[in-house]
C-alpha cells in the first residue's frame, strides 16, 4: 500500500473513538451561527486531547489514555442503516476533489526507498524483463505520475469510516454521552436544559426512533451554558452557571464563553481557520447534487451506485475486461464526448465555496476563545466522559465476574436473570444479518461485547481482547455469524494494538471475519472496513503480499470506486515489496485505472494508466502499450488535455503495431479528430505529424535536371540519376577519372581545392561540406516515406519546407523586395496560410496526391528551383494527412463529409545525423557525430550546362571491329562553355581522330551510311610487289594518355549551340560484356567562380563476340644475302601469321576476308608477301585457319636518322584490290592506343633493368644477346566480315594487333588467361643462388652461319682420285657489338646424326680461322672440301666459336649447327678413248 500520513496505531485509534451527541437550543444555535458554524462543527477541530487521561480498570490499575479523540455530532433521528446513493456520491466527490499535487517533491518516492537487490529465484523465467529492471523501477519511481502517498485513498477511507452506520452487533458507533447546550441569553436557561434533557430521554427510550443508537441506557448528560461575550451580561451568565453547578454538580456542567471578537476593533488581525478541512468533508456529506457529474461526463445516476446496470451487463461485454480495446464501431465516440464542456468547474473543489455560506469560519472568535473551546473539551472528557466510562466498565465487569463463577450448565438461568435468552426468529429490520439470531439488548453475550467495546475505546486493549475472545466463542457456539465476525474483527485489532505485543497479530481472525461479512452476511460495508484495517496492519508488518491478496479479494462489481482504490493500493503493495514486482504493479494499476474510469474518476484513471505506462513502454508488449496509449489519449481528450491526447495517439501510430487493420484505422481516425481539435483555428505554425514515418538518413538530393531520355535515334548520355544505385567502387572510379581531367586542364597538377563533383548525395557520400547548386537549375529531394500501419494513408499538397538566406542585395533591390541582405526567407507562412508562393526566390513544386498503401515504403521526389544566389536550407516536408479509403463499403453522405473533415495539415522535419567521428582521441572516447550538409546547398551563379547525344552507337561488336558513330554536343544553358575533354576507363575503345590524320568523312550519319570507316585507296596487287610504306610521327597522335581533348571548332560552344563530331569505336579484344565509362569535362568561360568545372558521365555496355585469332612468330631467314632483293644489309626475317576464324555462328557472320596485313615499327617493316602469292584475299569460313608468310626487313638507313627517331614506319601489304592507309585515322589511332602503352612499359622495364645491372659483365652480355634477338614489329591484320542480318548483307570491318617482340617467340592477338599459381612448398633454409651465366642458347645466336655450295657435283674419279669442291661460308654478326669468331674445320663430331651420312671427306687448305666481325657485319670465307669417292656428304661440319670482344674465354661457346648441308658427289664413267661415258653411281 501507499505510504500514509498517520501511523497504523493512530489510524486504528481514530477509526473507533467515543461518540458524543449534541442537542442545542435555538438561541444557542443562533449564537454559534454567527461564526458560520453549528455547535458540533465549532468543536470539531478541538476534539483531540493534548494531554493524557487516566482511568482505573476493574483491578484498580491506572490505565493511561493517550492522544484520545472524541467525535461530536448533532443528533440525527433519520434512519441510516446502509450506504445511501447520496453517501456514495459523497465518497465519489471526496476522491475526485483530492488530486495529486504536480511537482510535489515530498510525494515522489526515490529508488533508494526500494531494495534493488533481487535473488536469482525472483527472476524465474522473466530474465528479459529484469535486464532493464533497475531502469524501469527508477523510471516508475521518479515519474511525475507516481506518488508515494495517496491522499485520495486516505480521504476516502476516513469519510467511509466516519459514515459507517451503527449496527446491532456492536456498540462502537453508539453515543456514550449527550451535550445539552443552552445560551445564557435565554430567559430561563434551566428550563431549556430540562426541555433538552427530556428530548434526549424521549429519543433514546421512547422506541419511536431507531437512530441514533445509544451505548448504555443511562447516557451521560453534560450541561453547557453558552455565553456570547458580545451580547449578554457576563455576570448573569456566571450566576446561572453557579446555579447549574448546584443543580448538576461541577463535573456535569460548563460555562463556555465565546464571540469575544468585534470587527471594528480587530479588523486587521488574522485568526487561523482550523475548520475548513473538516467542514469541506461535512459539506460534501450534506450535498445532494454534485458538480462532479459534469466533469466526469456522467449523470448523477451513472456513478458508482448503479448496481442494476452493472449487474445486468453481460460478462463478455467489451467493458468487462480492462485490457480489451474498444471496438472499431465506438471509435468515433470522441466526437460526442467533445460536446461536453471539458473545462473543470473550479468551485467543485474550492473549500471556500463548499463551506456552505459566505464569509469565513469563526469570524467572531479570538485565539482566547479557541483556548476556551479546547479547555471545555478537556474538562468534559476528563471530568465527565472518562469517569462515566470507568463506572460502566466496573458495573459490567462485576456482572461478568459473577458469571464466571457459574458452570456452563447453569448459564441459561443466568441469561434469564439478565432478561431472557435468545429470540429464535429472523430479524425484520436487518434481514439475513444473523441468519436466524437477534440478541435482545440485555443478553449477556452483548454485555460482554459492550464491555469489550468500552475497554477498546479507552485503550485498555488487553482487557478488550479478553472480552472479545470470550464473546467470540459464545457467538460461534450460537451460530450468530454477524456477531461472531464483529468479535473476531475487534479481537484481531485489539491483539495488534496491545503494548509490547504479547501475542502475534491473528490475521486468520480478520480473514474469517471478512469472509463471514462478505459471503454469509452479505454486508460489503463491514467487509470493506475489515479489509482497510487488516491491510494497513499487514503493511506495517511488511507483509505486502498478504495485504495485496486481501485487497484484490475485496474487489467486486458492486462498487467500481472501491475496487479501483483497492486495486491501486494492491499495486503499491507490489512495488513496495522487498523484491519489487514491477509488472504486477503496472498490471494492477491498469485494472485500477479501468475501474476508476467506470466510476467516473477520469483524472485518477489517467494517472493510473500513465503510471503503468512507465513499466510497459519499450518492453516489447506492443498490444499493451497500444491499449494504454489509447486509453490515455481518450481520457486526456475528455479532460481537455488535448496536447497529451495527441502525444498518446502519436505513440500508437508511430510504434510498429501488431493491431489489426480495422483497429489501426480506428486509431488513425481518433488521432486525426483529436489533432484537428488541438489545432483548431490556430495555424500560426505547422505542428509535427507522426505519420508517415520518414527515413531521414535515406534522403537523397540530386542537383540538376533529370536526364533526358532517348529521342529517336539519339541516345542521351546516362549521367547520374536518382534511379541508379550508389556504388562506392564506381564513385572511386569516377573520382579518379575526374582527377585525370582536372590535372590535364591544370598543366598536370590537381589543385589543392579540388573536390570531386557529387551530383547525387546520399547517406554514403561525403556530406561534410556544403554542396554547390546552380541557380535556375532544379534541386530534387527524394524523401522515403514508410507507412507503418495496415491501412492506407492519403497525403496531399506535399511540398518541401525551406529557408533561404540571400548573399546580398543592391540598394535598388532592397527597395523592391521584402528581404534584405542576410535576412532569412521561408515558405512556411505561405504553406500555412495558403497564400501565393514566393516564386521569385525559390519555386516550390507541390505534389497534389501521394498515396501510401498498407505497410508500404515509397519515395517522393520533390523539386525546388532556386532563382537567386545564397544559402538554401531544406527544413522538412509539409503535407495534408488523411486516412485513405481501403475498399470498404462507401460511407453515407454524412460519413463522407466527416472523412473529408478529417484532413489535417502539418509538417515533418528532415533531421539527418552525420557520420560518427573517429579521428581524434576525444572522438574515439566520446560519441560525436559530424555534420550532414546534404540539405544545405549553396546556390551559385548560372553555369554552362551541356547535353550529349550519341548517334549510331552500337551495343554489340566483334572483337577488334571498327565502327563509326557520331556525338552531338549541345550547350543548353545561357553561358558559353569551353575546355571540352573526355576521359575513359577504356581509352583504347574510341577515338575522335587527330587533326592531321583524320580523313574527310561525311558530316551527317545519313550521308555516310555505307562508307567504310577506313581511309582507302584503290590499287591492284601484282605478284612480287612490295609493301607501300608511310612514315608517321607519334606526335601526330598526341593524345595517347587517358585524357583526350575533343576537337570542336573554336574550342568554345556558345549558348544554344551544338556540334556533331564523328567517333570511331573498336571492339574490345576480349569477348564478353564490357562496361565502358566516359567522363566529359567542360568549363565556363568566366573564371573565379565557386564551381570551376562541370562533368557529365556516360556509361555503356558493349557485348564483344569472338572474331579472329591471330598467332604470329618470326625466324631468321636462311637465304644468302646476295639472293635477297633490295636488301643489301643483313639477311631478312620471315614472319609467319596464322589466322583462325574462332567466331561462333550466333553473330550471323558467314565468312571473314583478310584484306590487308600492315606493320608498324621504328626499326622493322614488312617487305613482301610470300604466301599467298596470288592476288586474292584470304577467305576464312567457320573454324578455318590460314597461314600467311611475309618477309620482314630492317628499315632503310636514311630513315633511321637522329631527326626521325620517334617516327614509325607503317608498311601496308594488301591482299586484295583495296589498300587501307593504316597510318591514318582510325587505324593508326587504335594502333597507338592499343599497342604503344605495352611497348613503352616494356622499354621502361628493359631500360631500368639495364641501368640497375650495368655493373655486372654477365648482365651486359645478356642484354646485348637479348637485344640482338629483339624484333619490335607490330602486325596489324585488317579484315572484313560478311554478316547476314534481317535478310540484308552487312560488311563489318576491323583490325587485330599482334606485337612481335622477340625472334622465335610466338605472339597472339588474344590475351592469355592467367593460370592458377601452383602451391610452393615452404622453405626453411635459404637456397644458395646459382652463379649467373649467360645461357648458351642465346650466345649461340650471336653469329648466323650459311654454307653456299652446289647441290650436285660430278667428278671423274677414274681420271682424278681427288675431288675438290669450293664452299662459301657466310658469317653474319646479329648483335650490335663486335664479336670474335673462331672457325675450326677439323672433324671431331661424334654425334649419331653425323655418322649416318658418309663422312670420308676432308677440308683442305687452312683449317682454322680467327676473325673479328663488326656490329651487323657480314663476312664470306671460301673453303675447299676434298672427296675421295662418290656419295652423299654432310658439309655442315665446321665448328664456329663466338664470343663478345674483350671478354674472357668463359663466354666462348660453339654455335648451334644448322640443318644438315647435303651434297651429292657423282662419279663420271670414262670411255676407252678417254671420253666420259656416264655416271657410275
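^ C-alpha cells above, recovered residues below v
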Amino acid at each position: 500500500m501507499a505510504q500514509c500520513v498517520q501511523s497504523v496505531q493512530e489510524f486504528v485509534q481514530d477509526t473507533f473513538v467515543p461518540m458524543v451527541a449534541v442537542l442545542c437550543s435555538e438561541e444557542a444555535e443562533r449564537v454559534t451561527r454567527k461564526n458560520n458554524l453549528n455547535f458540533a462543527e465549532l468543536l470539531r477541530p478541538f476534539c483531540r486531547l493534548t494531554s493524557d487521561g487516566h482511568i482505573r480498570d476493574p483491578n484498580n490499575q491506572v490505565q493511561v489514555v493517550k492522544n484520545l479523540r472524541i467525535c461530536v455530532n448533532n443528533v440525527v433521528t433519520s434512519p441510516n442503516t446502509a450506504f445511501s446513493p447520496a453517501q456514495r456520491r459523497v465518497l465519489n466527490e471526496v476522491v475526485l476533489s483530492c488530486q495529486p499535487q504536480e511537482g510535489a517533491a515530498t510525494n515522489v518516492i526515490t529508488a533508494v526507498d526500494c531494495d534493488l537487490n533481487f535473488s536469482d529465484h525472483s527472476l524465474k523465467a522473466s530474465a528479459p524483463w529484469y535486464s532493464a529492471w533497475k531502469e524501469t523501477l527508477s523510471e516508475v519511481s521518479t515519474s511525475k505520475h507516481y506518488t508515494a502517498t495517496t491522499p485520495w485513498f486516505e480521504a476516502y477511507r476516513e469519510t467511509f469510516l466516519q459514515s459507517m452506520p451503527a449496527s446491532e452487533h456492536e456498540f462502537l458507533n453508539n453515543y456514550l454521552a449527550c451535550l445539552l447546550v443552552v445560551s445564557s441569553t435565554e430567559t430561563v436557561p434551566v428550563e431549556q436544559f430540562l426541555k433538552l434533557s427530556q428530548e434526549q430521554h424521549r429519543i433514546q427510550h421512547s422506541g419511536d426512533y431507531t437512530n441514533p443508537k445509544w451505548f448504555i441506557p443511562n447516557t451521560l448528560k453534560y450541561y453547557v451554558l453558552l455565553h456570547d461575550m458580545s451580547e449578554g451580561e457576563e455576570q448573569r451568565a456566571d450566576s446561572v452557571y453557579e446555579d447549574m453547578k448546584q443543580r448538576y454538580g461541577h463535573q456535569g456542567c460548563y460555562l463556555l464563553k465565546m464571540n469575544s471578537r468585534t470587527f471594528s476593533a480587530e479588523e486587521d488581525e488574522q485568526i487561523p481557520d482550523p475548520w475548513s478541512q473538516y467542514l469541506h468533508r461535512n459539506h460534501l456529506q450534506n450535498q445532494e447534487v454534485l458538480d462532479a457529474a459534469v466533469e466526469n461526463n456522467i449523470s448523477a445516476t451513472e456513478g458508482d451506485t448503479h448496481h442494476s446496470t452493472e449487474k445486468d451487463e453481460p460478462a463478455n461485454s467489451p467493458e468487462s475486461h480492462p485490457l480489451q480495446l474498444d471496438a472499431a464501431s465506438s471509435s468515433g465516440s470522441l466526437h460526442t464526448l467533445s460536446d461536453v464542456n471539458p473545462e473543470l468547474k473550479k468551485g467543485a473543489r474550492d473549500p471556500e465555496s463548499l463551506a456552505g455560506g459566505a464569509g469565513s469560519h469563526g469570524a467572531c472568535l479570538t485565539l482566547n476563545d479557541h483556548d476556551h473551546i479546547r479547555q471545555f473539551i478537556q474538562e468534559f472528557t476528563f471530568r465527565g466522559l472518562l469517569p462515566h466510562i470507568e463506572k460502566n466498565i466496573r458495573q459490567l465487569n462485576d456482572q461478568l465476574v459473577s458469571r464466571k463463577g457459574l458452570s456452563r450448565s447453569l448459564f441459561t438461568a443466568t441469561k434469564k436473570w439478565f432478561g431472557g435468552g435468545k429470540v429464535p426468529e429472523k430479524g425484520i429490520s436487518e434481514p439475513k444479518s444473523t441468519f436466524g439470531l437477534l440478541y435482545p439488548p440485555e443478553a449477556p453475550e452483548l454485555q460482554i461485547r459492550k464491555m469489550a467495546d468500552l475497554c477498546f475505546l479507552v485503550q485498555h486493549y488487553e482487557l478488550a481482547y479478553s472480552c472479545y475472545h470470550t464473546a467470540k466463542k459464545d457467538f460461534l457456539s450460537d451460530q450468530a455469524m454477524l456477531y461472531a465476525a464483529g468479535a473476531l474483527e475487534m479481537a484481531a485489532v485489539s491483539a495488534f494494538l496491545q503494548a509490547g505485543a504479547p501475542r502475534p497479530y491473528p490475521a486468520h481472525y480478520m480473514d474469517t471475519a471478512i469472509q463471514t461479512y462478505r459471503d454469509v452476511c452479505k454486508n460489503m460495508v463491514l467487509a470493506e472496513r475489515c479489509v482497510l484495517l487488516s491491510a494497513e496492519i499487514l503493511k506495517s508488518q511488511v507483509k505486502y503480499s498478504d495485504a495485496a491478496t486481501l485487497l484484490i479479494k475485496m474487489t467486486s462489481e458492486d462498487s467500481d470506486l472501491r475496487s479501483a482504490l483497492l486495486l491501486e493500493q494492491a499495486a503499491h503493495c507490489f512495488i513496495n515489496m522487498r523484491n519489487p514486482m514491477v509488472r504486477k504493479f503496472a498490471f494492477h494499476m491498469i485494472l485500477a485505472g479501468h475501474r476508476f474510469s467506470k466510476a467516473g474518476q477520469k483524472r485518477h484513471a489517467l494517472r493510473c494508466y500513465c503510471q503503468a505506462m512507465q513499466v510497459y513502454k519499450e518492453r516489447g508488449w506492443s498490444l499493451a502499450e497500444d491499449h494504454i496509449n489509447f486509453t490515455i489519449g481518450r481520457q486526456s481528450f475528455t479532460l481537455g488535455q488535448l496536447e497529451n491526447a495527441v502525444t498518446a495517439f502519436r505513440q500508437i501510430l508511430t510504434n510498429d503495431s501488431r493491431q489489426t487493420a480495422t483497429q489501426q484505422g480506428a486509431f488513425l481516425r481518433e488521432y486525426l479528430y483529436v489533432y484537428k481539435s488541438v489545432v483548431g483555428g490556430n495555424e500560426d505554425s505547422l505542428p509535427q505529424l507522426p505519420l508517415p514515418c520518414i527515413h531521414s538518413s535515406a534522403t537523397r538530393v540530386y542537383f540538376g535536371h533529370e536526364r533526358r531520355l532517348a529521342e529517336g535515334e539519339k541516345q542521351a548520355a546516362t549521367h547520374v540519376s536518382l534511379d541508379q544505385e550508389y556504388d562506392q567502387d564506381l564513385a572511386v572510379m569516377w573520382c579518379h577519372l575526374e582527377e585525370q581531367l582536372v590535372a590535364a586542364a591544370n598543366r598536370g597538377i590537381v589543385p589543392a581545392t579540388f573536390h570531386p563533383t557529387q551530383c547525387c548525395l546520399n547517406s554514403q557520400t561525403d556530406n561534410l561540406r556544403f554542396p554547390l547548386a546552380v541557380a535556375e537549375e532544379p534541386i530534387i529531394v527524394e524523401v522515403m516515406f514508410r507507412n507503418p500501419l495496415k491501412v492506407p494513408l492519403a497525403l496531399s499538397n506535399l511540398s518541401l519546407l525551406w529557408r533561404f538566406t540571400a548573399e546580398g542585395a543592391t540598394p535598388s533591390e532592397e527597395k523592391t523586395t521584402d528581404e534584405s541582405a542576410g535576412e532569412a526567407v521561408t515558405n512556411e507562412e505561405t504553406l500555412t496560410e495558403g497564400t501565393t508562393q514566393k516564386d521569385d526566390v525559390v519555386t516550390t513544386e507541390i505534389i497534389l496526391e501521394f498515396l501510401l498503401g498498407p505497410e508500404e515504403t515509397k519515395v517522393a521526389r520533390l523539386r525546388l528551383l532556386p532563382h537567386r544566389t545564397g544559402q538554401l536550407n531544406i527544413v522538412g516536408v509539409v503535407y495534408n494527412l488523411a486516412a485513405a479509403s481501403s475498399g470498404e463499403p462507401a460511407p453515407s453522405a454524412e460519413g463522407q463529409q466527416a472523412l473529408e473533415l478529417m484532413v489535417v495539415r502539418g509538417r515533418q522535419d528532415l533531421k539527418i545525423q552525420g557520420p560518427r567521428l573517429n579521428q581524434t582521441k576525444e572522438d574515439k572516447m566520446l560519441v560525436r557525430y559530424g555534420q550532414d550538409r546534404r540539405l544545405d546547398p549553396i546556390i551559385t551563379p548560372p553555369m554552362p550546362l551541356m547535353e550529349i547525344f550519341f548517334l549510331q552507337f552500337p551495343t554489340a561488336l566483334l572483337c577488334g571491329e571498327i565502327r563509326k558513330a557520331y556525338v552531338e554536343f549541345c550547350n543548353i544553358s545561357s553561358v558559353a562553355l569551353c575546355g571540352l575533354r573526355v576521359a575513359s576507363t577504356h581509352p583504347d575503345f574510341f577515338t575522335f581522330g587527330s587533326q592531321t590524320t583524320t580523313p574527310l568523312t561525311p558530316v551527317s550519319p545519313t550521308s555516310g551510311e555505307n562508307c567504310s570507316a577506313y581511309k582507302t585507296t584503290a590499287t591492284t596487287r601484282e605478284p612480287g610487289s612490295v609493301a607501300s610504306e608511310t612514315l608517321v610521327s607519334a606526335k601526330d597522335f598526341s593524345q595517347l594518355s587517358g585524357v583526350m581533348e575533343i576537337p570542336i571548332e573554336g574550342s568554345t560552344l556558345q549558348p544554344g549551340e551544338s556540334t556533331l563530331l564523328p567517333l570511331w569505336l573498336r571492339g574490345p579484344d576480349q569477348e564478353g560484356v564490357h562496361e565502358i565509362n566516359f567522363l566529359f569535362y567542360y568549363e565556363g568561360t568566366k573564371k573565379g567562380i565557386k564551381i570551376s568545372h562541370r562533368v557529365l558521365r556516360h556509361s555503356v555496355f558493349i557485348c564483344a563476340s569472338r572474331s579472329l585469332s591471330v598467332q604470329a612468330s618470326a625466324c631468321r631467314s636462311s637465304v644468302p644475302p646476295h639472293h635477297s632483293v633490295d636488301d643489301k644489309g643483313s639477311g631478312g626475317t620471315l614472319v609467319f601469321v596464322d589466322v583462325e576464324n574462332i567466331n561462333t555462328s550466333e553473330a550471323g557472320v558467314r565468312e571473314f576476308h583478310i584484306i590487308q596485313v600492315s606493320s608498324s615499327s621504328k626499326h622493322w617493316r614488312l617487305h613482301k608477301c610470300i604466301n599467298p602469292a596470288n592476288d586474292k584475299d584470304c577467305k576464312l569460313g567457320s573454324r578455318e585457319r590460314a597461314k600467311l608468310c611475309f618477309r620482314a626487313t630492317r628499315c632503310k638507313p636514311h630513315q633511321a636518322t637522329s631527326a626521325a627517331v620517334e617516327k614509325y614506319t607503317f608498311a601496308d601489304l594488301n591482299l586484295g584490290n583495296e589498300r587501307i592507309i593504316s597510318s591514318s585515322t582510325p587505324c593508326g589511332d587504335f594502333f597507338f592506343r592499343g599497342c604503344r602503352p605495352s611497348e613503352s612499359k616494356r622499354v621502361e622495364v628493359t631500360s631500368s633493368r639495364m641501368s640497375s645491372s650495368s655493373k655486372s659483365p654477365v648482365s651486359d652480355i645478356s642484354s646485348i644477346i637479348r637485344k640482338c634477338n629483339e624484333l619490335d614489329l607490330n602486325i596489324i591484320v585488317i579484315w572484313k566480315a560478311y554478316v547476314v542480318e534481317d535478310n540484308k548483307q552487312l560488311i563489318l570491318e576491323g583490325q587485330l594487333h599482334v606485337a612481335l617482340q622477340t625472334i622465335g617467340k610466338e605472339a597472339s592477338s588474344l590475351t592469355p588467361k592467367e593460370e592458377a599459381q601452383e602451391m610452393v612448398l615452404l622453405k626453411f633454409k635459404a637456397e644458395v643462388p646459382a652463379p649467373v651465366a649467360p645461357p648458351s642458347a642465346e650466345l649461340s645466336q650471336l653469329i648466323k652461319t650459311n654454307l653456299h655450295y652446289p647441290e650436285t657435283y660430278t667428278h671423274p674419279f677414274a681420271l682424278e682420285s681427288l675431288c675438290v669442291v669450293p664452299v662459301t661460308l657466310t658469317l653474319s654478326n646479329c648483335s650490335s657489338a663486335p664479336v670474335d669468331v673462331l672457325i675450326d674445320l677439323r672433324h671431331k663430331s661424334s654425334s649419331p646424326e653425323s655418322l649416318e651420312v658418309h663422312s670420308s671427306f676432308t677440308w683442305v687448305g687452312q683449317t682454322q680461322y680467327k676473325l673479328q666481325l663488326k656490329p651487323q657485319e657480314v663476312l664470306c670465307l671460301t673453303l675447299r672440301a676434298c672427296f675421295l669417292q662418290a656419295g652423299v656428304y654432310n658439309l655442315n661440319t665446321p665448328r664456329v666459336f663466338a664470343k663478345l670482344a674483350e671478354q674472357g674465354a668463359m663466354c666462348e661457346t660453339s654455335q648451334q649447327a644448322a640443318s644438315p648441308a647435303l651434297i651429292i658427289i657423282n662419279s663420271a664413267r670414262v670411255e676407252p678413248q678417254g671420253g666420259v661415258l656416264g655416271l657410275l653411281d
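The first strand starts at residue 19 and ends at 24.
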